[in-house]
């Protein structure tokens, strides 16, 4: 499993960004996590690739949408109304079993999102 994120960048508060993750040859549960300097990594959004069921962290609910394109082996995170507290390194992650945070064993290198 290879995960490669893209789409990060610097935006002003209130702006939008779309993160992408190229996930070659994978099926299971996929998610976006983030980690800000000095803080623990936190789950942002998760999607079951089979059912399409999604879950979101309370801190981003209503402002982000996780989606997948199975034909393109791609995972996306559309973020709206960005806030400075959304500033973090964002990681794409994959699990071959459940969607529990501890089951995500595959990680991308991360893409930086900075909101000012």
How many individual helices? Answer: 0
The N- and C-terminal alpha carbons lie at a distance of 34 Å
* Record field, number of beta strands: 11
Could you name the ranges where pLDDT drops below 50 across 5 or more consecutive residues?
A: none
Helicity level? under 10%
| Order of helix and strand elements from N to C terminus | EEEEEEEEEEE
Using only C-alpha atoms, the radius of gyration works out to: 13 Å
The description of the largest β-sheet is: 7 strands, mixed
How much beta, percentage-wise?
over 45%
Structure description:
The protein is mainly beta. Helix content is 0%, strand content 52%. The chain has no helices and eleven strands. The strands form two sheets. Strands 2, 4, 5, 6, 9, 10 and 11 form a seven-stranded mixed sheet that branches. A four-stranded antiparallel sheet has the order 1-3-8-7, with no helix packed on it. The relative contact order is 0.32. The mean pLDDT is 93.
Task: Describe the SSE topology.
Blueprint: E1 2-6, E2 9-11, E3 17-24, E4 29-35, E5 42-48, E6 54-56, E7 64-69, E8 74-79, E9 88-95, E10 106-107, E11 111-115
Parallel strand pairs: 2-11
Antiparallel strand pairs: 1-3, 3-8, 4-5, 4-9, 5-6, 7-8, 9-10, 9-11
Primary descriptors:
mainly beta; 116 residues; 7-stranded mixed sheet; globular; 4-stranded antiparallel sheet
Summarize the structure in short:
By secondary structure, this protein is an all-beta fold. It is built from no helices and eleven strands.
